[in-house]
Specification:
Strand 7, helix 10 and strand 8 form a beta-alpha-beta unit. It contains 14 helices and ten strands. The chain is about 45% helix and about 10% strand. It has about 425 residues and is of the alpha/beta class.
Length: about 425
């Protein structure tokens, strides 16, 4: 155990050195100006490994700790150091570690009052199947609001152990809450079933409105409970495998650091589970229920893997504080750019299979150039994500990142 602690502390020292470097301050300032719709030298670039972390980058044999808390901290440190050494994208490294609080009540899969579970694949890397519990209309009465209140004693014990491990090298921040943003279709898929939700829009629209409204009201009660308990934390910061959200507008001018409000933070929403539903039905059954959530936050980021064609027009009209949207590989960059103009930042996502499976530098360059041409003089960044494998070529991500930065510096005409 002593050797484990020594190794983790050495990892922490390496991370804090990166966090306090001059380059990191430059990168963070670039994101701040970018998210505030100001001119920057080039589009920021991000990579988000998913399954590749465990399969190729950080397999289990890399880790030294077997203690669950220490292992989680070690994983964050190793991810940050791997990105800095082998990817060199624009991820912002902060001088702290986030540690989840321990909440009262049941953990997932029982936190909604029913068993939110899946049927897992028999083969490694396969797809799971939803196993919904809301089968009959009356089953909605089984649902309850996931508990937001904190087990203070258990959380304090975890916090103290994390602080002792890191020995003042890195700070420890506690993150709170089980629900955030407005992922109603996400939870609907687990509770009701993905295909069944689409049928419900047609077969039982009144009941389905009631179902989605329960999920919406649960989110509102949950996050307002966190706010009342002073458990909202700032998210205008950098984090592991995510775009840095720092900006000039958040927190608000009347911000009191002793009590962070929802309005001082970013909210998020998406609807990728409703990708096959018409924009009109998406607006009625998802967006109109998300808007009360969005109004609680300072700025909003919207989208995931769904196309926003036909939806970005509605978002621009209805979500006044919309600041970032994703442009998935299945979306239309030019169409989205025409509606975002220089008022909303686009996160443009290349098709991961085109980049990772082929690994052709000329194709990478042409793809970035094409996307920049389609985006015109709007505001955007690039994010290569859903990376399940790099086919054993660890240099793939650093190669793509370097090309995206180079082409960005050359062609960005914002």
């Amino acid at each position: 155990m002593l050797d484990d602690v020594k190794i983790i502390r050495e990892l922490a020292r390496s991370v804090v050195e990166i966090a306090h470097s001059d380059q990191m301050q430059i990168t963070k300032n670039m994101w701040r100006r970018h998210n505030s719709l100001e001119k920057v030298e080039r589009p920021p670039v991000m990579c988000r490994p998913c399954g590749a972390w465990e399969r190729e980058f950080l397999p289990p044999e890399v880790f030294v700790s077997t203690d669950p808390l220490f292992r989680g901290i070690e994983a964050i440190l190793r991810m940050r150091l791997f990105k800095a050494a082998h990817v060199q994208d624009d991820e912002v490294v902060e001088p702290w570690i986030d540690m989840p609080a321990v909440h009262l009540g049941e953990e997932r899969p029982l936190m909604w009052g029913v068993n939110v579970n899946t049927i897992n694949p028999k083969k490694n890397g396969g797809s799971f199947i939803f196993k919904p519990e809301i089968m009959a209309e009356e089953d909605i009465d089984k649902l309850r609001v996931p508990e937001w209140r904190v087990n203070e004693a258990a959380t304090s014990e975890r916090y103290e152990r994390a602080c002792e491990l890191l020995d003042g090298i890195l700070d420890v921040h506690i993150s709170y809450g089980r629900l955030n943003g407005a992922g109603f279709a996400y939870w609907g898929s687990y509770l009701r079933g993905l295909e069944q939700m689409m049928y419900d829009c047609v077969d039982r629209p009144e009941w389905f409105h009631r179902f989605i409204k329960f999920i919406c009201d649960a989110h509102i009660k949950h996050i307002k409970g966190l706010e009342a308990d002073n458990h909202i934390v700032r998210n205008d910061v950098g984090s592991v495998d995510a775009a840095c959200m720092t900006c000039n507008e958040l927190p608000r001018p009347d911000f009191n650091k002793a009590h962070v409000r929802l309005i001082d933070t970013w909210g998020a929403g998406d609807s990728q589970e409703f990708a096959l539903v018409s924009p009109q039905m998406w607006e009625e059954f998802i967006l109109d229920h998300q808007i009360p959530i969005f109004e609680l936050y300072g700025l909003i980021s919207y989208g995931c893997c769904e196309s926003l064609v036909g939806k970005i027009e509605i978002l621009r009209k209805k979500v006044a504080n919309l600041r970032r949207v994703t442009v998935s590989p299945w979306s239309d960059i030019a169409h989205t750019a025409g509606h975002c103009r220089k008022e909303v930042v686009m996160e443009i996502r290349p098709m991961p299979s085109d980049v990772l499976a082929v690994f052709d530098k000329d194709d990478m360059r042409k793809d970035i150039e094409s996307k920049m041409k389609q985006a015109g003089d709007t505001i955007y960044d690039f994010c290569l994500q859903d990376i399940e494998t790099v086919f054993g070529r660890l240099e793939t991500l650093s190669t793509w990142t370097a090309i995206a930065k180079e082409v960005g510096e050359k062609l960005y005409n914002r």
